Amino acid sequence: MVDVLRIALPVPLPQLFDYLPPEGCPAVSPGTRVKVPFGRRTQVGMVVATANTSTVSTPQLKRVKRVLDATPLLDPELLSNLLRSADYWLGAPGEVLFHALPNVLRKDRPWPQTSESWWCLSGQGRQPKAWSGRRGRSRALLELLSERERRADELDLCLPGWREAARRLRKAGLVETRMVDADVAMPVAVPGPELTAAQRTAVEAVGKHLGRFAPFLLRGVTGSGKTEVYTALIARTLAAGRQALVLIPEIGLAPQTVQRLQARLGVVVDVLHSNLADGARARTWLRARDGQARVIVGTRSAVFTPMPQAGLIVVDEEHDTSYKQQEGFRYHARDLAVMRARHLQVPVVLGTATPSLETLANVASGRYQRVDLRERIGAQRQPPRAEILDMRGQVLHHGLSSALLHALDACIGRGEQALVFRNRRGYAPVLTCHLCGWFAQCPRCEKPMALHQGRSRVVCHHCALESPVPRDCPQCGHAELFRQGHGTERLDEALTTRYPDIPVLRIDRETTRRRDAFEDLLGPLADGRPAILVGTQMLAKGHDLPHLTLVAITSIDEGLHSLDFRAGERLAQLIVQVAGRAGRADRPGRVLLQTHHPGHPLLQTLLHRGYHATCEELLVERRALTLPPFAYQALLRAESTRRAQVDAFLESARLALPDTSQLRVSGPMPAPMPLRAGRHRGQLLLEADARPTLHAALRPWRVALGNMPDARRVRWSIDVDPVDLY
Ligand code: ADP
Ligand code: ZN
Ligand code: ZN
Fold first, then answer.
1. What distance in angstroms lies between residue 450's CA and the mean position of ligand 3's atoms?
2. Which of 58, 247, 263, 467 has a CA 20 to 30 Å removed from the CA of 281?
């Protein structure tokens, strides 16, 4: 009987690979990285399990060449949850495991230094008699630290080999480390405001579950102080000697969140997101794995953070679709966070003012508990409700009605700040010829290209193709092209002209490309002097902009026309979130909503009866149509430069499905965007009333698809629980 190692390799195949352990090293624990021969190359793999037998006969089994980690890199919880999530979202196990690792650790390289910590003497180590019997390096280290505390890299320089001594002295209780981030000094905790009764109730409700799995929806209107609730819960978690993970939807929110938490908690808060430099990301990840990082804030991919001493997981703005990865391994970070919380036996708090219908359904079925913060902090108890501005027949100035402009004038006149919301970047969505009807069109997507005036380019927002702006009409030679529609750039220009004396700040993907740009841009708002913010939905995501008193939503009609069954939910969330930026200080806020469809039922319900009532209606509709969350979907997408190849593949894929009435199949059909970046796109939608039914069909289907000759001619993927059908 031999021991066999089951190894995951970063290849797009659903199976694991069997190897013999390296000579003289029979026990390699799961979670350890190894180097193995694979085909003609060597690969870094991850041991996932050990077994007594293999389906491959022993003489053919190859041997692991080298073990890369002295202790497993992934602990059993993270390893098993990653494998479970690979199974759920149909990722290849090896790809999922390696995707979860920071880049640096995917390769055969030494671990980066994690110790940005400073070494110092402990209370005991400062007693001279405690030093007796310590000689050599230990003595030298004690002496160095008695002068002052020192960083690891400094000790590397002045006392080579100090680590062994430090380990011994730490064990004896003579030295300790103090965590100090490279360039952030240890913040000092400042006491927070006294919690309101509602906040205290929320903290109690969750807090009494610390130490066991309990999922919560924290439903709090915008400005109700959810962050203070998280903070109080994190403080309790830290006091219990445990780690906390906070997921946020947008990198731009990280500085604000980190500052608030650090100030309150008095510990260094670590940040993890995919924009970090490789080294820094790996360092923080390893610090979390060592238990050095106590509080970790991060975007979607931070859900893969190892947490050996986990105590709490928070998912802020749980409804945000950025938690769903839209390419490669299409996991949902919120759902994975709940999955991890269950196995870590910790509470998980999903916070938002606008819960997703999925989460509301989980509350209704009793799987999640709900805690409410019904009122705002401060004088304005309720967030402002939007007032409709009927645009029909109005004269518009750059898309803005005169009623809207009057409200802006008044707001600025009172010395206050305003937000003008427009969910389109660029100057104009379409550049067209008034004479012959030509318009700038992306040849690869067959959609209009947006004019970006400042950069003198037309840009395809679907595939990012750019080209120079033509001077005259390429079709008829007419000397003037018409800029149709309004993007944030155009509103920026129009408002700057109208209000030359106050700052007009534009926030969209173009202006915030640079790291930290967000914070810099919002800087001028801090002192509360008049300013106008123009921006896209990036601004809908939980920014605390306390001085805004007017929010103007210039158009939402695209959302009302969308065919996506989630469009109503999205639009309601967007309106409530954007509106929620107004009136946070002690001055009342006003929200204006321009539309050509003032009587639309969704708007009527939302404005008169609120978000919750809207969701109830939407849920009734979804149930009647057996759509999620009352059904479970998976979407097979395929694309190729040739339409026929897409059709052939999807047709074979359909035939490979089990013939059961429990599975509803729609398609093959063209994707809502049938052409993108020069590739034809099609899809096949699977629906079932029960999750197990869907997964029972998906697993063998995926294997069958992988073996299809037609599959080699297309790019395909399966999206489990897709958040949009594009
Ligand atoms: P939310 O995340 O629910 O939108 P925030 O946590 O951003 O709300 O809180 C809104 C504002 O109210 C913040 O400026 C915050 O500092 C303040 N705040 C929160 N809780 C309290 C409290 N108990 N007393 C006074 N101010 C508070
Ligand atoms: Zn023309
Ligand atoms: Zn394009």
1. 10
2. 263
pLDDT in tens, 364-405: 999 999 999 998 887 777 778 789 999 999 889 989 999 999
Q: Do 214 and 315 share a domain, yes or no? A: yes
Measured distance CA(100)–CA(91) in Å, rounded: 12
Residues 215, 323 within the same domain? yes
**Each residue's pLDDT tens digit, 257-284:** 888 898 888 888 888 887 777 877 888 8
Which whole-number Å values give the CA distances from 423 to 151, 213, 322, 506, 564, in the listed order?
Answer: 48, 39, 16, 12, 17
In this structure, are 493 and 477 located in the same domain? no
| Minimum CA distance residue for ligand 1 atom 15 | 225
Does any ligand 1 atom lie closer than 6 A to the CB of residue 485?
no
This prediction has a pTM of 0.87
Q: Is 452 in the pocket of ligand 1 (CB under 6 A)?
A: no
Residues flanking ion ligand 2, Cβ below 5 Å: 433, 435-436, 438, 473, 475-476, 478
Same domain assignment for residues 421 and 436: no
- Ligand in nearest proximity to the CA of 197: 1
For ligand 1, whether the C-beta of 377 sits within 6 Å is: yes
Give the residue, 150 or 580, on which the prediction is more confident: 580
Do the strands 531-535 and 417-421 form a parallel or antiparallel pair, or are they unpaired? Answer: parallel
Number of domains in the chain: 6
Quick one: tokens of 586?
């002690």
Residue 441 Cα to ligand 2 middle (Å): 13
Distances (CA, A) of 528 to 418, 507, 524, 580, 587: 11, 18, 8, 17, 12
Same domain, 403 and 543: yes
**Domain of 456, in residue numbers:** 430-484
Ligand 1: which atom is nearest the Cα of residue 580?
A: 4
Residue 496 is predicted with a pLDDT of 95
Task: Give yes or no: residues 65 and 136 share one domain.
Answer: no
Ligand at minimal distance from the CA of 449 is: 3
- Domain identity same for 162 and 252: no
- How far is Cα 58 from Cα 593, in angstroms, rounded to an integer? 71
Q: Mean of the pLDDT values across residues 644-665?
A: 92
- pLDDT per residue as tens digits for the range 65-80: 999 988 899 999 999 9
Residue 191 in domain: no
**Any atom of ligand 1 within 6 Å of the Cβ of 227:** yes
pLDDT of residue 463: 93
pLDDT over 70 (residue 180): no
Q: What are the φ and ψ backbone dihedral angles of 396, each rounded to 5 degrees?
A: -115, 140
Domain contains 257: yes
Helix (H) / strand (E) element for 616: namely: helix 601-624
**Are residues 465 and 326 part of one domain?**
no
C-alpha of residue 433 to centroid of ligand 2, in Å: 5
Q: Is 417 in the pocket of ligand 1 (CB under 6 A)?
A: no
Chain centre to alpha carbon of residue 16: 29
Does residue 537 carry a pLDDT above 90? no
Is the CB of 568 inside a 6 Å radius of any atom of ligand 1?
Answer: no
